[in-house]
Recover the amino acids of this structure.
């Protein structure tokens, strides 16, 4: 199968460009991942879902992928917290790394091929610094090693930052940076106190600066540069500019990144959601308010990745309603056509005899191929919902209908991107209710009745009703259940 041609807004040129990977059957994509010192907030999660949208869109387009996302498990915050808690850096970061993967699982984010950790890539970082040293781009001050921006004439190429006003030897060695402040950045940090985590290496006793890890890990995983590099927009400068400086500084003849993609911020009341501002929700915060993971995923991916998204619970509620409209149509198709047990055809080989479905399928994939335009792809989904509902409203006797079968295949394909819809008879509720859970509730109600606790029995019935599950008590004393229509 050949690939659907994609275009991407490349941050390097600021323009939409045709996507031309070196090998469409082995596309290399590197994404800046989490710093594991706390639960990710849903702003961070937006940037990880963006990577999932990129992955799923390219897969739908027929590409094969080799993706990596780094885990930053060493930085100032991590060191300070682990010292405060009197535990090792590894002990401190382990539960946060697990929480990160759990969040991704909850949101149906596909696993990538590689998750390199900074602490497991120290040798690669040391090697990179040595190459930069031999290329004359490194100087030492107080035991720290710095990258000399003035000696590297391509600095600013990516972010278009102006370096002309920079005084020579102005240094920065913290892991968090002030935006737009151009300084020589630290590659390797000298150990400051005895309790600080450090490595004994050929370039000294200390630890890497934050930017170094991504350049080194890209080389470690791929042996050279990558087709696509992604991150949140706040990483464009200085993080990605510094990554590019390190990589081109060490290997000037090699292309480091073909396409740079940057995801816009999630905002709260017009301001960037961030830990330091305290205006953030974690995924758990929102789940505790009674929202299901699917609504959150649907909401966060339905805006274009290059648009700012202002987060509010009422907007989340609107997305939930929109998502349920699509889900209800899927259930209508399954029920009316009696198509519950049909398996999806091999994706990418969809053949539609119906011209409307053919057109919607093309529009859907072409919208994704146009710089991941999910809002436009969603418009095609709602067009599908409209024509399918119209068909269901105006036709009868639809068991085994070819149109419904083909519509279902199209919904399956759409769900390869959204990953929030259910095609399963047992799990028909968007709240993730399983048959097991319903049977447990029925059992609890039976026990309550046996104990003459009729108010609890009644409460259970009402709770189930509120979730769209209707109970019927038969004369034989058996309780059956069905979904409300
Ligand atoms: P961190 O864990 O802080 O290293 O950040 C992980 C990712 O989340 C990076 O790609 C950031 O650019 C991204 N990010 C941080 N805050 C936001 C936000 N409010 N909206 C979207 N992405 C964000
Ligand atoms: Zn990075």
């Amino acid at each position: 199968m050949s690939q659907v041609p994609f275009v991407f807004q490349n941050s390097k040129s600021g323009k939409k460009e045709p996507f031309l990977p070196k090998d469409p059957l082995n596309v290399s994509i590197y994404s800046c991942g989490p710093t594991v010192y706390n639960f990710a907030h849903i702003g961070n999660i937006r940037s990880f879902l963006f990577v999932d949208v990129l992955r799923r869109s390219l897969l739908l387009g027929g590409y094969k992928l080799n993706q990596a996302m780094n885990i930053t498990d060493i930085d100032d915050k991590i060191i300070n917290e682990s010292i405060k808690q009197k535990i090792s850096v590894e002990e401190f970061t382990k539960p946060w790394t697990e929480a990160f993967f759990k969040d991704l699982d909850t949101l149906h984010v596909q696993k990538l091929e590689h998750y390199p950790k900074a602490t497991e890539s120290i040798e690669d970082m040391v090697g990179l610094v040595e190459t930069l040293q031999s290329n004359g781009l490194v100087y030492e001050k107080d035991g720290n090693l710095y990258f000399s921006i003035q000696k590297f004439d391509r600095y600013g190429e990516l972010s278009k930052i102006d370096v002309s006003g920079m005084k020579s030897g102005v240094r920065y060695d913290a892991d968090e940076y002030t935006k737009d402040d151009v300084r020589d950045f630290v590659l390797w940090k000298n150990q400051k106190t005895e309790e600080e985590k450090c490595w004994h290496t050929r370039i000294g006793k200390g630890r890497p600066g934050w930017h170094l890890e991504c350049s080194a890990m890209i080389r470690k995983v791929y042996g050279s540069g990558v087709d696509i590099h992604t991150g949140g927009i706040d990483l464009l400068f200085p993080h990605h500019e510094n990554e590019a400086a390190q990589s081109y500084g060490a290997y000037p003849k090699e292309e480091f990144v073909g396409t740079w993609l940057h995801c816009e911020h999630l905002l709260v009341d017009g301001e960037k959601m961030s830990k330091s501002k305290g205006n953030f929700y974690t995924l758990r915060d929102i789940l505790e308010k009674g929202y299901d993971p699917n609504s959150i995923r649907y909401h966060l991916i339905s805006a274009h990745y290059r648009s700012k998204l202002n987060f509010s619970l009422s907007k989340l509620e609107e997305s939930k309603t929109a998502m349920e409209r699509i889900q209800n149509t899927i259930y209508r198709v399954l029920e009316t056509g009696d198509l519950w047990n049909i398996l999806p055809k091999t994706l990418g080989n969809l053949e539609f005899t119906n011209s409307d479905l053919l057109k919607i399928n093309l529009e859907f994939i072409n919208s994704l191929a146009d710089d991941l335009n999910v809002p436009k792809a969603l418009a095609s989904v709602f067009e599908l919902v409209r024509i399918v509902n119209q068909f269901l409203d105006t036709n009868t006797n639809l068991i085994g209908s070819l149109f419904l079968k083909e519509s279902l295949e199209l919904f399956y394909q759409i769900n390869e991107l959204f990953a929030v819809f259910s095609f399963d008879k047992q799990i028909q509720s968007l709240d993730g209710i399983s048959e097991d859970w319903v049977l447990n509730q029925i059992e609890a109600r039976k026990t309550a009745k046996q104990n003459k606790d009729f108010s609890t029995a009644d409460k259970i019935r009402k709770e189930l009703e509120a979730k769209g599950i209707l109970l019927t008590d038969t004369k034989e004393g058996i309780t059956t259940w069905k979904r409300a229509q």
